[in-house]
# Entry
Amino acid sequence: NIIYIILELYSRIGGMHYALKSSAPAEVAAAVDVNTTANEIYKHNFPNTPLLPKTIEGMMLQDFDKLNFDVILMSPPCQPFTRIGLQGDVADPRTKSFLYILELLPRLSKRPRFILLENVKGFETSSARDALLKTLREFDYSFQEFLISPTSLGIPNSRLRYFLIARRPPGSFSFPTSAEVLFFCWQIIEGFPMSESLNSLAVPHSHPTSSECERDKTGTIIFKLETEQELERKRIQDSQETTSGSVSAAPPKTLLRYPLLMDVVQPSSRRSVCFTKGYGHYVEGTGSVLQSCVDVELEGVFKSSELLSEEDKLKQLSQLKLRYFTPRQIVSLMGFPADFTFPKHISIKQQYRVLGNNLNVHVVSHLIRLLISK
Ligand SMILES: *[C@@H]1O[C@H](CO)[C@@H](O)[C@H](O)[C@H]1NC(C)=O
# Structure
């Protein structure tokens, strides 16, 4: 029985590690990251995994050789490749550590058999990607590139990302690879869940009934849970929600200024937009807000509010009981298990920040299975 030995680079809060749990018998030989906040969260959830708080460039060839890994999983820093960034690409110092990995790869005493890389959309046109592909070809790796959003797995959250999976002999991919960057290529994998709603997946507090809305004057979150699994989830959330309760209700001023810029979703929605790192602080373009009282018509409220006084507008809008998704809800949307927690001293703002460049565990987990399948 094979146990894959993993090197997890730029490990952040452990999304790759969680993806392994449901995809491959594996042991993480080392996780490497310099971000102290992310590292505290990683350590809190994986106390037994060696976590090296280092830059990749700070590690020598021998350090890597000692780890004796078969698989590299990595999410290199993405800023250089984002479309809104400066497109600094390989000239950007943040790309240096990635190029350093490419340099080391051929010199390792045992080259890894499997590689998985995640990045932002835009990486596929960068020169860092060209350098990666050149190295892979040179050392006999076959590979496939993808652009995937969790929505293509039926998960109600958009987060379009670039992925590459690569392997070298012995063995080859169980599907014919293509030189194209594949979009939504799920016909390769079988057994996908059909689209689920936020209610079942990410928003364990389901919406209150109209009478409960009436009683919900204080803005406390009402739980209405169905299954045992959800009760367990609730127990875990209850212990966390005490700290996040105050930020989870969108402040009225924000509502009044930006109602039309917000992406409002309901618990029954089958979609939500990508949560970015300013979520909870800036309204425009940072992620969806949840309408927790669904018997009020959204359009009606926005339409009638045009003719009303400021105060009445606020009253109308507050009927919707808009809330920010809590960090806990976002992590479940991203596929993290119920037992994932943040250390107590990590503030809500920090939680939103680290979640902003997080990855979707389900997507990676499917890709790992695809990567190692015979
Ligand atoms: C760690 O990452 C978060 C989220 O990207 C960022 O806001 C923070 O500044 C980083 N901290 C350090 C010490 O690099």
